[in-house]
Amino acid sequence: MKLRKLSLVSGLVVALLAMSVVAAGVGQLPVPASEILGSVMHRLDHGLEDLLRLDLPLDLGPVPHHPQGDNALWKVRFPRVALAVLVGASLATAGALMQGIFGNPLAEPSVVGVSSGAAVGASLVIVTGVTFLGNWTIAAAAFVTGLITTLLVHVLSRAGGKTEVVTLVLTGIAVNALTFTLISFATFIASTSAREQLVFWQLGSLNGATWRAVGAVLPFTVVGLLAAFALSRKLDLLSLGDRSAAHLGVDVERLRLLAIVVVALLVGASVAFSGIIGFVGLVVPHLIRMVAGPGHRLLLPASALGGAVLVISADLIARTLIRNADLPIGMITSLVGAPFFFWLLRRTRSRQGGWG
What we know:
about 350 residues, mainly alpha, two-stranded antiparallel sheet, 2 strands, globular
């Protein structure tokens, strides 16, 4: 069992590194893998020499032979890959957390309206142009509205002290409808340039990723992931049922509230700079759980790695499927996630003997 878990994590790490190199090398200006690694080692060597004042033998491998190769990597490709890693890890971890606290595999940030709730805050910031927190304004607004939406879904879907699957999904549909109405209104009153920005942003895209965006998302993602991992043991106990978890010393309501805040933090930061990318938080944790089992101490980090691999792969397909076109990444993930959600819905209904 330990060997299988180790193999899973090792495989995901290798897949993440391989997809990162492939995504950085593919584009209008192809860059071979050897030159990508050589460019990284060259920058690492110079950076450590400036920092430590030591002559380190790290300048290995060839640098890009094309005059614009290094600029293409460090100004366009690497920021995009880094943002894809952060967004994928955040969405997949948020999905695993929601499935853990609600106790069902259908809970996912976009399905229950959390992503669209965070999108409301980001849309209002884009339309109004307010920048009271600088680069952090969009992420902060997305966090606040995502948190409010998550709490609203949680409260409205509870009945008799527990959350039912059907009530949760239907509440999410209703909240999604409400949030998209608000986003549509923001789009209606926006200026022409802001409206165009909003439309493309709602479709989900990593086009235009910069190191500044990576720097803004990184703290939210790191804090969110650490907080999620810190909750993993209590989430395992919660899977035994609310009453059993309470007998084992878990404050169930406090745990759910903490997890909801963490979900809002992760989703708010990723939505702010990537737009709405649905189904990552549904597909990845479920697939990981089928391989690794329900234990959150492995499920959460493995989901983070799997989410990063999925978003990098989807982004690569989105920008290379049609020549000289950058398709919305949300369209690619929805193309995979929607049939998966339907299959999961049918499977869950069958296991529970119907919902009629």
